[in-house]
Amino acid sequence: MTEPSLSMASGQEMLRTPEGVGGVMGFLERLLGRFSLVGDSPFPDPAHFPWTAEVERHWPAMREELDGLFEAGLPIPGFEELSKDQLFLTSDKRWKTFFFLGYGVKFEGNIARCPRTWDALQAIPGLTSAFFSILEPGKTLAPHRGPYKGVLRYHLALLVPRPEELCSITVKGETRHWSEGKSLIFDDVYIHSAENRSDSRRVVLFVDFARPLAFPLGTINRMLLKLMSKSGYVQDAKHNYARWEKAKRG
Known about the structure:
Elements: H1 4-7, H2 11-16, H3 23-34, H4 52-57, H5 59-71, H6 79-82, E1 95-102, E2 105-106, H7 108-113, H8 115-121, E3 127-135, E4 140-144, E5 151-159, E6 167-171, E7 174-176, E8 183-186, E9 192-196, E10 202-210, H9 217-228, H10 232-249
Antiparallel strand pairs: 1-2, 1-3, 3-10, 4-9, 5-8, 5-10, 6-7, 6-9
């Protein structure tokens, strides 16, 4: 693999690909699963991640900062406005993203608006990406998969409509529901979908972090993730956000 933007971060084609990809990526995924220090299940055992307790401790502060964004009426972009690769998944600006970090690229203005959230994120080992993920009422994300098994996904529920059963995430056929202030970790390489069938917003702190791996794969994985910050996929999103922010926030 010589070009991160093609081998790992090119979202559209990989995200459409069903489970069990072949070729180099298929071999890499099997290797990462085999040498994972936290198993290879769709929902890894939370006991492997003691840092979640520290992050959960900060959830009231994060919720307060989130509420402040909504109360101020701050514009928040749809994911497809930052990454055109998301257009096959969402095109109605109803999956909104308030980014703090994208594969090493910091969104300084957003960090300044939510400093306590940023402080809490520092407790997460191998942090690569983080944002508030907002599903508007009635929004559904169709089944899809992530591009790279070298990361795991973490959700901390900040705002969940009642009853909780109206909002769900399904990973490899297993459905879970979010609870405010509680953590959820899953492997996004497995086919997954999400829905908000309520009449109000669902918001989670959405994080990707490096999968714990046996040596030397852990070291190689961290190097690859660092390279991704230089890829066209990430840089395009950074430039798209700068243009969006200038147009919408002045």
